[in-house]
Design goal:
The chain has nine helices and seven strands; from the N terminus they run E-H-E-H-E-H-E-H-E-H-H-E-H-H-H-E. By secondary structure, it is of the alpha/beta class. Helix 3 runs parallel beside helix 4 and helix 4 runs parallel beside helix 6. The relative contact order is 0.13.
Length: 268
């Protein structure tokens, strides 16, 4: 992927499981990676991992819901590297109170938690895109990658807040792709990746028992995934490289599933 060499990428949530894998993966391709997150310790661990493989990285301490912090982060990147080629909006997650367990009722859902998960996933993508995308508009070139989910593609039980906010990411991706191409530059592209089911710290206890066997929910997911397994974070990388590469210059406004066939399977 020589077209990626010396590009500059900002990855929100870049010290997390999925974001961290993407940060290291891009660094291996010669991309200068800015890892944005709230916790300096985890960011420094990821930076050390990138530097150990000969990559170039910097840390940005910022909350994706804090515009001033994001603007300061943008200034820092511009001062050091002078451009922003890629923005990966990997920050996000779920909140327990916006999840409806089998013993719970939708009518008792905590609306504050529903608001919080919506802010984290939707506003936490929109606000960094406003701040860093503005620099791309000035440059006339850039690449924005949002993170959707299988929860946005089909109705999954329990995760009402997460599903609703991730579904919003899909239409935001398509809307912004049109907006950027029509008003700013056809060289600013906006796409999304929709991971299937990957084991992470947030969902481990939902999908796996302590002995590593599948929970009932984990078994249902695997049974409805034609490849009969969960994904591995590294399996997102080839799609990320493809969407970020200049060779995909006519691709914008799409959501790419990486799900082992989950979204294609009817269950029958």
């Amino acid at each position: 992927m020589s077209n990626l060499k010396n590009k500059v990428a900002i990855i929100t949530g870049g010290a997390g499981a999925l974001g961290g894998t993407m940060a290291v993966g891009l660094a291996k391709q010669g991309v200068k990676v800015a890892i944005l997150g709230r916790t300096e310790k985890t960011i420094q661990i990821k930076i050390a991992e990138i530097k150990a493989i000969g990559g170039e990285a910097m840390g940005l301490i910022a909350d994706v819901l804090n515009r001033k912090q994001l603007e300061n982060a943008c200034d820092k990147v511009m001062q050091l590297w002078g451009k922003i080629d890629i923005l990966v909006n990997a920050a996000g997650g779920n909140i327990k109170g916006a999840t409806i367990m089998p013993e719970d009722s939708f009518f008792d859902m905590n609306l504050d938690d529903f608001d919080s998960v919506t802010k984290l996933n939707l506003k936490g993508t929109v606000l960094p895109t406003i701040v860093f995308g503005k620099q791309m508009a000035k440059q006339g070139k850039g690449n924005i990658i949002n993170i959707s989910s299988m929860a946005a593609q089909q109705a999954l039980t329990r995760v009402v807040g997460y599903s609703t906010s991730k579904a919003s990411i899909d239409i935001f991706t398509k809307w912004l792709a049109v907006e950027m191409a029509q008003k700013h530059s056809e060289k600013i592209r906006v796409n999304a990746i929709a991971p299937g089911f990957f084991i992470g710290e947030q969902n481990r206890s939902l999908l796996l028992n302590e002995d590593g066997s599948l929970t009932a929910r984990g078994n249902t997911i695997v049974s409805n995934t034609p490849m009969k397994r969960f994904g591995e974070a590294k399996e997102v990388l080839s799609t990320l490289y493809w969407l970020c590469d200049d060779d995909s210059s006519f691709i914008t406004g799409i959501v790419v599933p990486i799900d082992g066939g989950f979204s294609a399977f009817s269950g029958v």
